[in-house]
Amino acid sequence: MHYHQVLDTGELGGGNLYALAIAERLKAQGESAPVWIGGGGPALAETERRGLPPRSFDQNRLRGGGIRAILELGKLAWRFRREKGLVHNSSVHTYGLMSRAYSAAGIRTVAHVQIESNAESYRWAFRKPPTAIVTCAQFLVKQLEEALPAETWKTCRIVAVPNSVDVARFFRGDRAAAKRTVEAPSNRPLILMAANLAMHKGQLTAIRATAELRTLGTDAELWLAGVERGGEIAFTARLHELVKELNLGERVKFLGQRSDMPELMRAADAFVLPSTNEGLPLTLLEAQASGLPVLAAPTAGVPEIIAHGETGFLIAADDAGGYARHLHELFRQPELGEKLLTKAFSRVIEQYTMDAMFGNLRKVYAEVMR
Questions:
Q1: CA dihedral 348, 289, 304, 162 (to 10 degrees)
Q2: Distance set, CA 225 to CA 17, 195, 259, 260 (Å)
Q3: What pTM does this model have?
Q4: Which of 77, 76, 89 is nearest to 8 (CA)?
Q5: pLDDT given at position 5
Q6: Which residues 6+ apart lie within 8 Å of 252 measured at CB?
Q7: φ and ψ of 11, to 5 deg
Q8: What would the pLDDT profile of 105-163 be if each residue is shown by its tens digit?
Q9: What is the mean pLDDT of residues 257-274?
């Protein structure tokens, strides 16, 4: 039995890392879990590092349309018909591009909705409905039910399987030792943000909040982990210009793509995500499991995992001053952070572990194959 995991790009965003984690679990149970990648890059390297079997397809051909797309779809249909099993797509858009190949192959499919989109995008992607749709957050279930035509539900079911964190990798440790490991400063607070460099993710707000902290009397450092997708550099250049404009100098560090995220989480003193477009961000769960106070925008599924003032803080995505004030208080009153961390960690362990997620996903797989 093959459980094909199809990634959306060659980058290592949250959705792709989630798919690789599923493939690893399947492999550990003796199942075949080929990983399909529409290009090379970090995703291919990480797939090989984890000892998972890579498969390739040409996503540029599919996006381009015409005869080249038809030939690529024909090739994919032949390969899936030959290997059989179940296909799990990590993104709505990639499912939409490949749905005709799945239909021609007669293979069972699961499409994963990791981020909210508009009704038109959903209707385009699911014009040939999958066997099941899995969402990373509960709010997306209602959104899809309202967006898709009624006939879709005659052949397709939808279920929420919340994102989860691997507590074997992300856990609270010795912060001072972790700072030494990643060469973080020990004499000032470290703020971490892990996200692709993009306008909607909120790096501009994080940088401005770091500058605002100075005016409040807190000299903190901000580390940005992530890269701009598609090899672009325009937004990255804008971020560097803002750092220079605000005279932050060495206080903002661009880490690029990192594979040592657990160590970075353990070294940081707070985690921020002022994003305007999300699903259920995996990084927030990882931060909570690692003992980090979390500050994020109340976007999409974020309020499902953060209760304001109880397990973190919900602050408007463009409110740099609000982020700065809450960070200032956290750094001045460590006991406030400890109170948040205790409740947040308990909730993660109860509801968002990899074991719970994988168990629920295997139930979906079994129903799909029946």
A1: -70
A2: 15, 6, 10, 10
A3: 0.76
A4: 89
A5: 97
A6: 207, 210, 221, 222, 223, 224, 243
A7: -85, 175
A8: 999 999 999 888 899 999 999 999 999 999 988 899 999 999 999 888 888 999 999 88
A9: 95
CA of residue 183 relative to chain centroid, distance: 26
Long-range contact set of residues 363-370: C-beta below 8 Å, sequence gap at least 24: 364/110, 364/132, 364/134, 364/159, 364/161, 365/3, 365/86, 365/88, 365/110, 367/132, 367/157, 368/86, 368/108, 368/109, 368/110, 368/131, 368/132, 369/86, 369/108
Exposure of 182 by Cβ count < 10 A (0-12 exposed, 13-18 middle, 19+ buried)? middle
Question: What confidence score (pLDDT) does residue 251 get?
Answer: 95
Buried b (16+ CB within 10 A) or exposed e, 74-85: eebbebbeeeeb
Domains and CATH numbers, the chain: 3-164+353-369 (3.40.50.2000), 175-351 (3.40.50.2000)
Confidence at residue 72, expressed as pLDDT on a 0 to 100 scale: 96
Measuring CA to CA, which residue among 49, 54, 44, 50 is closest to residue 25? 50
The separation between CA 345 and the C-alpha centre of its own chain, rounded to angstroms, equals 19
- The backbone torsions φ and ψ at residue 295, rounded to the nearest 5 degrees and listed phi first, read -125, 125
Give the number of residues written for the chain: 370
Cα-Cα-Cα-Cα torsion 56, 61, 67, 72, nearest 10 degrees, comes to: 10
For residues 197-214, give the mean pLDDT. 97
